[in-house]
Amino acid sequence: MLGLILCLIPIPIMIWNFFLLKKRESISFEMRKGWICHCCKKSNDMTDVQKLNKILSENNYHICTSCSRDRKLKILRYPILKWIYKFWDEFTMSSSISHYSKIYIGLIFFLIAIDMIFLFNGLKIRLSVFYGLLNFIYWILNTSKTYYTSINKS
Ligand SMILES: [Zn+2]
Question: From the CA of 140, how far away is ligand 1's center (Å)?
């Protein structure tokens, strides 16, 4: 029962993600290239030449001075935030994360396939809790990423 609930929860999240994408404008390219601060989403003061130079280089996301100071102050209070910020920056800004997400989705399908094979052979091993949970985490992270790397259309 828990597995079924975990398998069904991502459906409203998927629908919300779809409508979120329609209503919001993606700024992930500008964030990845460091044109705008990826924390407060305010534009850095850069000339057009500097922007063009950043296009040719690899991902070099940038965080402005005030956001960097705020983060350091929060890390002093809650040290675990250091790892959370590190994960979040890599997850939202790195292009190599799509490679890991393919492996992650592959793992979900692998668990579903194993569950099906055992089910057809008459054994209930109840893997649905695991792949339901993995699927739920995937959609929560994906929707958060979409929300974080987009702004309201003006
Ligand atoms: Zn900032």
Answer: 24
